[in-house]
From TrEMBL:
Pfam families referenced in this protein's UniProt entry, alphabetically: DAP_DH_C, DapB_N
Keyword hit for Repeat: no
GO biological process: lysine biosynthetic process via diaminopimelate
Organism: Kibdelosporangium aridum
Domain 2,4-diaminopentanoate dehydrogenase C-terminal, chain residue ranges per copy: 151-355
Keyword Transcription regulation applies: no
The protein's name: Uncharacterized protein
Keywords: NADP, Oxidoreductase
Residue span, Dihydrodipicolinate reductase N-terminal domain: 9-71
């Protein structure tokens, strides 16, 4: 007897949400049963159109959260923004867990390492699990599989290890998010500007959980988490396709690390290198090709290096990364649906082969 399909709702249809609709549509065990949107002009539109598919899926988007949840979906991908509205995002997630849904999301940084989340955040989620029987798994690509299960998998073939370094190396030239790029990351700002993304404590808030997850899996003790930040200025004004000019003398590249200290030295390191143009900081790490990559380097014997370059939505590397974040989350739903209700992290949830996902001929 084949198991019934798992009715799955997508909440939010931005970068992550539209990839989630496509991933559910392609998954042999899942069925898209609803789409929740925030913007009124998306209400009533077909999910296939919102996801950039060339066909309708027969599910229309709704702004009525309660009506969609009243159908008690078995699963829900929470893809509404959480970095700027974490409390509201958690309230939304609690609603879905209360109706018994398995919730997967990349939206709440403090919950990637849920075991170490503050009690005032975790306790209401545990109460919702008890009350409704749903579950929660928070993950993505970075933070996410690029700095939890990928390095851990590769560590399994090492002889001895000095440092595990996880890198995200991205050129934002084609990234159409001017607010994030200019304000949050500080590209194009004077060199005395302090980018909020690297304000003291913020990198640890976002990526510290990943360091703890890796240490837990490796049986290592983290003594301390440290941060480093470096910035470089543009030597020439550069013109981007989507965001206009970035002036000579302003910030053109940002590099930061979150370091897990073991035996007094950085041994588990998460590093980000972000540029607005490849001409800035050419001596810093570069992706092997194109605009971006995730990389794991295990310094030790043997030295091991793995780079991952994902592309989607017309050869776009950011979309490729987002699609893999979604793959990790949507791919976990059927496993979570069979597991006990609860809060899960990336060490708990296995990454399994893509059973049944070879595209149908002609699809
Ligand atoms: N860890 C990772 O690897 C990773 C990767 C990418 C993103 N993320 C996280 O995932 C989340 C989604 O990212 P994204 O790139 O998809 O963002 P996005 O493209 O900006 O989309 C976010 C969506 O949130 C909805 N939304 C906006 N304001 C809202 C509000 N006030 N109330 C309810 N919904 C609202 C909108 O939905 P509608 O358009 O449907 O109305 C919007 O499209 C973010 O929190 C981001 O930090 C994590």
């Amino acid at each position: 007897m084949t198991a019934p399909l798992i009715d799955t709702v997508v909440w939010g249809t931005g970068n992550i949400g539209r990839a989630a609709i496509r991933a559910i549509e392609a998954h042999p065990r899942l069925r898209l049963s609803g789409v929740i949107v925030h913007s009124p002009d998306k209400a009533g539109r077909d999910a296939g159109e919102l996801a950039g598919l060339d066909r309708e899926l027969g599910i229309t988007a709704s702004t009525d959260v309660d009506a969609v949840l009243a159908a008690s979906p078995k699963a829900l991908v929470y893809a509404a923004s959480g970095e700027v509205r974490p409390n509201e995002a958690v309230d939304d997630i609690i609603k879905a867990i209360r109706v018994g849904a398995v919730v997967v999301t990349p939206s709440v940084y403090a919950l990637y390492d849920q075991r170490n989340a503050p009690a005032d955040l975790r306790d209401p989620l545990l109460a919702a699990v008890k009350e409704g029987g749903g579950s929660l798994f928070v993950s993505g690509v970075d933070p996410g599989w690029g700095n939890d299960i990928l390095p851990l998998l590769i560590s399994g073939v090492a002889t001895d290890i000095d440092v595990i370094r996880c890198q995200e190396i991205f050129d934002y030239t084609t990234y159409d998010q001017p607010d994030s790029v200019r304000w949050l990351v500080g590209m194009g700002q004077p060199m005395d500007y302090s980018p909020p993304m690297v304000a003291p404590g913020i990198p640890t808030m976002v990526w510290g959980g990943q360091i703890r997850l890796m240490a837990r899996a490796l049986g290592a003790e983290i003594e301390e988490i440290r941060e480093t930040v470096a910035r470089r200025e543009l030597e020439e004004t550069v013109t981007t396709k989507l965001m206009g000019d970035f002036e000579k003398g302003t910030q053109g590249a940002l590099r930061f690390e979150v370091q897990g200290i073991i035996s007094g030295a950085p041994r588990i390191v998460i590093e980000h290198v972000t540029r607005i143009h490849p001409s800035c900081a050419p001596d810093w790490p570069m992706p092997p090709t194109g605009d971006g990559a995730h990389r794991v380097i295990i310094e030790g014997n043997p030295r091991i290096e793995v780079s991952v370059e994902a592309t989607d939505e017309n050869e776009n590397r950011s979309a490729g990364g987002n699609a893999t974040a979604v793959g990790r989350l949507v791919g976990a739903i059927d496993w979570l649906a069979e597991a006990e209700p609860g809060l899960y992290d990336a060490i708990d949830v296995p990454l399994r082969p893509a059973v049944g996902k070879f595209a149908k001929p002609g699809a």
